[in-house]
Every structure is written in structure tokens, then in C-alpha cells.
């Protein structure tokens, strides 16, 4: 796939990036270079390769999975325009 100047102009427009007309040929070349690199990556055989979280092996930190209320109810409800009995109060919308 090759990116021409019109396609580069359209991509810049979609990305809401202002690109001067004389810079469009260089932008198209840059897009083509990126696409060429992606094509190279598709040629690599990754069958059986485990995904990594880092370039160095490390164990992720774990914590106990326990449900809490966050102990911040009063702090959160302080910002509510109307709170009753520990909950947000909202107007009735269904009759």
C-alpha cells in the first residue's frame, strides 16, 4: 500500500492537524516508511512467543481481593446537591 499526497492531506485533516501544502510530500513519505516497517513486522514468526509485560522478567505485585466501601462515603456525599440516608437523592423521572 502506498500513501499519496491526497491521502496524506486527508489523514492530516481527519487528525485535525494543520499541514502546510509544501510539507505534504514529506508527510506522505513518512507514512509510507511507517507502513513499510509494519509490513516487515508481519513477516516475523511469533508462533509460540509468550507476551511480555516488560523487557526484564518481573513478578507483578498482588494484593488481596477484598470488597470495601472505600471508607469515603461522607467525603463523596459532601459534593452531592441532595443526599439522604447515605445515598445520592435524585428527582423521580418515571411515574
UniProtKB/TrEMBL annotation:
Matching InterPro entries: Asp/Glu-ADT_sf_sub_c, GatC
EC number: 6.3.5.-
A Pfam match: GatC
GO biological process: glutaminyl-tRNAGln biosynthesis via transamidation; regulation of translational fidelity; translation
Enzyme class, broadest EC rank: ligase
Keywords assigned: ATP-binding, Ligase, Nucleotide-binding, Protein biosynthesis, Transferase
Molecular-function GO terms, alphabetical: asparaginyl-tRNA synthase (glutamine-hydrolyzing) activity; ATP binding; glutaminyl-tRNA synthase (glutamine-hydrolyzing) activity; transferase activity
Catalysed reaction equations from the record: L-aspartyl-tRNA(Asn) + L-glutamine + ATP + H2O = L-asparaginyl-tRNA(Asn) + L-glutamate + ADP + phosphate + 2 H(+); L-glutamyl-tRNA(Gln) + L-glutamine + ATP + H2O = L-glutaminyl-tRNA(Gln) + L-glutamate + ADP + phosphate + H(+)
Family: Belongs to the GatC family.
UniProt function note: Allows the formation of correctly charged Asn-tRNA(Asn) or Gln-tRNA(Gln) through the transamidation of misacylated Asp-tRNA(Asn) or Glu-tRNA(Gln) in organisms which lack either or both of asparaginyl-tRNA or glutaminyl-tRNA synthetases. The reaction takes place in the presence of glutamine and ATP through an activated phospho-Asp-tRNA(Asn) or phospho-Glu-tRNA(Gln).
Self-association and partners: Heterotrimer of A, B and C subunits.
The protein, known as: Aspartyl/glutamyl-tRNA(Asn/Gln) amidotransferase subunit C
Organism of this sequence: Pacificibacter marinus
Lineage per the UniProt record: Bacteria, Pseudomonadati, Pseudomonadota, Alphaproteobacteria, Rhodobacterales
Amino acid at each position: 500500500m502506498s500513501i499519496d499526497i491526497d491521502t496524506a492531506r486527508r489523514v492530516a485533516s481527519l487528525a485535525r492537524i494543520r499541514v502546510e501544502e509544501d510539507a505534504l510530500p514529506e508527510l506522505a513519505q513518512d507514512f509510507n516508511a511507517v507502513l513499510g516497517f509494519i509490513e516487515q513486522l508481519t513477516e516475523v514468526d511469533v508462533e509460540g512467543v509468550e507476551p511480555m509485560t516488560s523487557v526484564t522478567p518481573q513478578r507483578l505485585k498482588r494484593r488481596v481481593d477484598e470488597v470495601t466501601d472505600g471508607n469515603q462515603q461522607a467525603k463523596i456525599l459532601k459534593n452531592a446537591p441532595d443526599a439522604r440516608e447515605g445515598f445520592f437523592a435524585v428527582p423521580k423521572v418515571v411515574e
